[in-house]
Design brief:
The chain is α/β, with parallel strands linked by helices. The chain has two domains: 286 residues, FAD/NAD(P)-binding domain; 182 residues, no CATH class. 29% of the residues lie in helices and 26% in strands. Its cofactor is FAD.
């Protein structure tokens, strides 16, 4: 990689990193609410869409409804609630073009480092672009990079893999030339990716086995929202869109709250739903009854019960137990059961990576996220002029990201009104109790525990997984609270 030297290529008032759902949302809110701010989006890949451009495996779809996953300023129109990945990618691209955001995206700019200077009240950002490391500056850095590693997925190893005569693939890197028509497939995993892959591949494969070490809660939901169709027919479009969006927000919050307060009741209802799909003779407890409570991990959503339909048809099956090894013709379970497979798909999870892998420093001192607390779910303690887009784990990602974007705009406007150049969340009591950022038992969360920032016990350091609480706090409470420190030093941007 050729270094560019010390020259600064360009200065931006706000630099957004990442051109996925949250990055496009952030750009729109800046244009809408802070039109005087010059901004750019740096995207390390050659296309926008983030998750929805990266994942190309069969059947890829969102497990959140599109009415809450979509942009509130450009609502999804149609009655299909669960939408495939290609449609979401096209929706993101169309939105960016419609609002002139595409012109602000610098593709192939992978940010590797950012250093805040208190003396200059700006970030110096280094990005790999066009075979060189180039330097930029910005007054405010906005990270919309998601939370997982695009370059590698979580991939356990098993004995005997080298003896397997078939093909092993990971869903994050789906090969274009993989033909599963008439083949026997084993999908290792029980999460959202696995329950999506199994029915999608079963439509053409000879047979698909979902091989899981332990069960996950699986809930069937209609792929189409009947209220959306009726509302579109009888109400003005803006009112219909708000009605459907809020219906889904409130139903999601209500179900999550009910699961937290009455876990055994929710468990019973979920298993009753599975029994209704698969019949009284199916061993539900073995394959679909986890040992943990509902919402200790994210639920798996299957539209129109497609996974259950594939199982009923005999084209798919669930195998629960430990894998002993690969064999030449497939997998051997510790129970002794042999699973024949021509293709093995390792839907074994993701690797958490914060900030897209970039490193942060404040006045030359490296920032370790694990040492920091999250302020309002959107900033790091003692890190100036930096925002994070981090969505909900129990609801649509975009709900929280849009709240963050609007709050960042409020913060920037407050700073301009008062002549502030920097804003920094300060933890007044360094000895205050800390809690894990994510209250989940999922494998990817446990594996990332050592690198994640923490949350506090009380606002504004408490991270609520609740849209209504966040809506009230982030829209109604002043941005100048007891935790936020403002500085009035101003610095003129360097000449390009």
């Amino acid at each position: 990689m050729r270094a560019s030297g010390g020259a600064v290529s360009e200065h931006f008032d706000v630099l957004i990193v990442g051109a996925g759902l949250s990055g496009i949302d952030a750009a729109y809110r800046l244009q809408e609410r802070c039109p005087d701010k010059g901004y750019a989006i740096f995207e390390g890949r050659d296309a926008m869409g983030g998750t929805w451009d990266l994942f190309r495996y069969p059947g890829v779809r969102s497990d959140s409804d599109i009415y809450t996953l979509g942009f509130p300023f450009r609502p999804w129109r149609g009655d299909r609630a669960i939408v495939d990945g290609a449609s979401i990618r096209a929706y993101v691209e169309e939105t960016a073009r419609e609002f002139g955001i595409s012109e602000r995206i610098h593709f192939g700019h992978r940010v590797i480092r950012a250093d805040w200077s208190s003396a200059d009240a700006r970030w110096t950002v280094e990005a790999e672009a066009d075979g060189a490391v180039r330097r930029f500056t910005c007054g405010f850095l906005y990270l919309c990079t998601g939370y997982y590693d695009y370059d590698r997925g979580f991939r356990p190893r098993w004995p005997g893999e080298e003896a397997f005569a078939g093909r092993i693939v990971h869903p994050q890197f789906w090969p274009d030339d993989l033909d599963h028509d008439g083949r026997r497939v084993a999908v290792i995993g029980s999460g959202a990716t696995a329950v999506t892959l199994v029915p999608a591949m079963a439509a053409q494969a000879a047979h698909v086995a979902m091989v899981q070490r332990s069960p996950t809660y699986v809930v069937s939901r209609p792929a189409r929202d009947p209220l959306a169709a009726r509302a579109a027919r009888w109400l003005p479009a803006p009112l219909a869109e708000k009605l459907v969006r809020w219906k889904n927000v409130l139903l999601g919050l209500g179900f999550f709250g009910f699961a937290r307060h009455r876990p055994e009741t929710v468990r019973r209802l979920i298993l009753q739903g599975v029994r209704k799909e698969l019949g009284p003779d199916y061993p539900i407890e073995r394959d679909f009854a986890p040992s943990y409570r509902p919402w200790d991990q994210r639920l798996c959503l299957v539209p129109d019960g497609d996974l259950f339909a594939a199982i009923r048809s005999g084209r798919a099956a669930v195998v629960t137990g430990e894998i002993d090894s690969f064999t030449r013709n497939g997998l051997r379970m510790r129970s002794g059961e042999e699973i024949e497979a021509d293709i093995v798909v390792t839907a074994t999870g993701l690797v958490v990576k914060l900030f897209g892998g970039m490193t942060l420093a404040v006045n030359g001192v490296p920032v370790d996220p694990a040492d920091r607390l999250v302020y309002k779910g959107m900033m790091l303690s003692d890190v100036p002029n930096l925002a994070l887009a981090f969505g909900y784990t129990n609801a649509s990602w975009t709900l929280k990201c849009d709240l963050t974007a609007r709050t960042v705009c409020r913060l920037l406007k407050h700073m301009d009104r008062h002549g502030h150049a920097a804003c920094t969340p300060r933890l007044r009591d360094p000895g205050a109790p800390r809690r894990p950022l994510l209250d989940f038992t999922s494998g990817y969360v446990r594996r990332a525990a050592a690198i994640l920032p923490a949350q506090g016990q009380r606002a504004p350091w408490r991270v609520h997984q609740n849209y209504l609480l966040d809506l009230a706090a982030m829209r109604l409470r002043p941005v100048a609270d007891e935790a936020m420190v403002f500085e009035t030093r101003a610095a003129a941007p360097p000449e390009s």
